[in-house]
Write a structure and sequence with these properties.
The complex is a heterodimer of chains A (222) and B (299).
Chain A lengths: L1 E10 L2 E11 L4 E5 L6 H8 L7 E6 L2 E2 L8 H5 L2 E4 L11 H12 L3 H15 L14 H13 L5 E5 L7 H16 L3 E6 L2 H7 L2 E6 L2 E6 L4
Parallel strand pairs in A: 3-8, 3-9, 6-7, 7-8
Antiparallel strand pairs in A: 1-2, 1-4, 4-5, 9-10
Helix pairs in contact in A: 3-4, 3-5, 4-5, 5-6, 6-7
Chain B lengths: L1 H16 L1 H36 L3 E6 L5 H12 L4 E7 L1 H11 L4 H5 L9 E6 L6 H12 L4 E6 L1 H43 L1 H9 L4 H45 L1 H4 L5 H30 L1
Antiparallel strand pairs in B: 1-3, 1-4, 2-3
Classes of the chains: A alpha/beta (222), B alpha+beta (299).
């Protein structure tokens, strides 16, 4: 599903990632651990094609992202979902419109959009807030809406960058349970976090980065 | 269809969300097009006047004295065969004298002192419509000047050339002013769209990340620019119409007396629509410029 071969990325000549080799299979649940500045977000950005590696190759669903033509990029992204720490919801659109955006850009019919958005909101438990605007929601609700937007188009891969950051333990636990449910339906999930509680709760594969280097890969079964 | 309604909705939302910058952009486009419109209005009206004056363009061919009636008749026949000639009137020496006496009753004694009638016979030619340009009249008159039996060729060359020069100047000024102000308008609209894009850069980024194509992101902004431009075009027409009516009112009875009033007219419908269309295109171009810059910096 995802393969990285000797991937390096530099910012101002400093390595944000250095010689990373990683393979993630379809349906896996992977936690990307490490302290702040370890390179977790950089790695996710490379996987989401928001940036390009300076060295090495990245294959996502057997497509080399470095050789992807700009016009093919949106189509690859439509097969992936992304959950942000700061939610990145559009404040002037209500919950329904925010979640419907990925379907809108694909040109899905109004009927199918209503159905799929309804399902996604129900899956994350915020269907009752569909007419509310993001600023009126709690942090937990906003993160659920962000997850709903990430899964609404049935992505093959769901990437999440610190999805439980700034949340209390109970709320954090609820959000992680949601990701486990999504993974159980067959979606490959990769979560970047520095929260040890998440590791204890999930008991899945943990890839640890430190200063841009992959320092451990536990629970991969290989 | 659903996408189209989304694009229109988003464009209108942008316009409503940025009222101040929208007003500035519309007002600037309106002012720009109004300045250009003043020249255009002047040019079109002067061209109308020039066309009506050109209908009166006549060339007078004075004949050499002492020609036989047969030679004069042959000369007239040859002229009629030329494509430049629309109508032709022969004025004999006697007719010329009679006309002079009618037009200048106080001065006709001057000619009596000379004894013999000094006025030459002439042929007055009205030029065919496609030969009424200054150049064509000049060329034809010069060719006739050397013809046998022709004493002199006269035509109202000065005012034709003056009018052509004035029209050329107005054309040049209109094009120059049009280009400069159009560039200003495109720049202002580009800045407006740039401000909108800057204010919504996070939204644009999110749209990219969820798989929106460049076209899907850009079309609402292009529409926004086009709508602003078209609104500016429409407002400029309103300003021009107001100014035109005020000018006519100020001209009042003096204009009617001089016959100017009836000759002056506002833009026909197709020119008015063209001005709105130009505004729309300028707006679209402004959006396009800012989107190109935005694409370069954030691709």
């Amino acid at each position: 599903m995802i393969q990285l071969f000797h991937v390096s990325k530099y910012y101002d000549r400093r390595p944000a990632l250095h010689d990373i080799n990683l393979q993630i299979k379809k349906g896996e649940f992977v936690l990307l651990m490490g302290p702040s500045g370890a390179g977790k977000t950089t790695l996710l950005k490379l996987l989401f094609c928001a940036d390009q590696p300076d060295e090495g190759q990245i294959l996502v669903q057997n497509r080399n992202v470095a050789r992807l033509r700009p016009r093919d990029l949106p189509h690859l992204r439509r097969t992936m979902g992304f959950v942000f720490q700061d939610f990145k919801l559009l404040p002037k659109k209500n919950v329904f419109e925010n979640v419907a955006l990925p379907l809108m850009v694909q040109g899905m019919s109004a009927f199918d959009t209503r159905r799929k958005v309804g399902e996604a909101l129900k899956a994350v438990g915020v269907e009752h807030r569909q007419h509310s605007r993001p600023p009126s929601l709690s942090a937990g609700e906003q993160q659920r809406v962000c997850i709903a937007r990430g899964i609404v188009n049935g992505p093959m891969i769901l990437l999440a960058d610190e999805p439980t950051g700034n949340m209390d333990p109970d709320l954090s636990s609820e959000i992680i349970e949601l990701f486990k449910t999504i993974n159980a339906r067959g979606t490959t999930v990769m979560i970047a976090t520095h929260n040890r509680q998440v590791v204890n709760q999930v008991h899945r594969r943990v890839v640890t980065l430190n200063q841009g280097r992959l320092v451990s890969d536990e629970g991969s079964g290989e | 269809m659903r996408r189209l309604s989304y694009f229109v909705r988003e464009a209108l939302r942008n316009i409503r969300g940025n009222r101040t910058t929208t007003l500035i952009a519309v007002a600037t486009t309106a002012f720009t097009l109004a300045c250009f419109g003043v020249f255009l209005l002047l040019y079109l009206n002067l061209r109308g006047v020039a066309n009506s004056l050109e209908d009166d363009i006549q060339v007078i061919i004075y004949l050499a004295d002492g020609q036989s009636p047969q030679a004069v008749a042959d000369f007239q026949r040859r002229l009629r065969a030329e494509p430049e000639v629309a109508t032709l009137t022969y004025v004999s020496k006697e007719q010329a004298l009679a006309d002079f006496r009618t037009q200048y009753p106080a001065e006709h004694q001057l000619l009596q002192g000379l004894g013999e009638n000094p006025l030459p016979a002439s042929v007055v030619v009205t030029m065919a419509p496609r030969f009424r340009s200054s150049e064509a009249v000049k060329r034809w008159a010069e060719r006739l000047n050397g013809a046998p039996g022709v004493a002199q060729v006269q035509y109202n060359r000065d005012w034709i050339e003056n009018l052509t020069a004035v029209m050329g100047f107005i054309e040049l000024a209109a094009v120059g002013v049009g280009i400069i102000l159009s560039a200003a308008s495109v720049t202002i609209i580009a800045s407006t769209i740039r401000l909108t894009l800057y204010a919504r850069r996070d939204e644009v980024e999110i749209m990219r990340l969820i798989g929106a194509t460049g076209a899907f992101i850009k079309i609402p902004y292009l529409l926004e620019g086009a709508v602003l431009g078209a609104l500016g075009g429409a407002l400029s027409l309103a300003l021009l119409r107001g100014g035109f009516e005020f000018f006519k009112m100020q001209l009042g009875s003096t204009g009617r007396l001089l016959g100017i009033d009836s000759n002056f007219g506002f833009f026909p419908v197709r020119v008015s629509l063209a001005i709105v269309l130009v505004g729309l295109m300028l707006g679209g171009a402004g959006s396009f410029v800012s989107l190109m810059e935005f694409g370069r910096t954030r691709s």
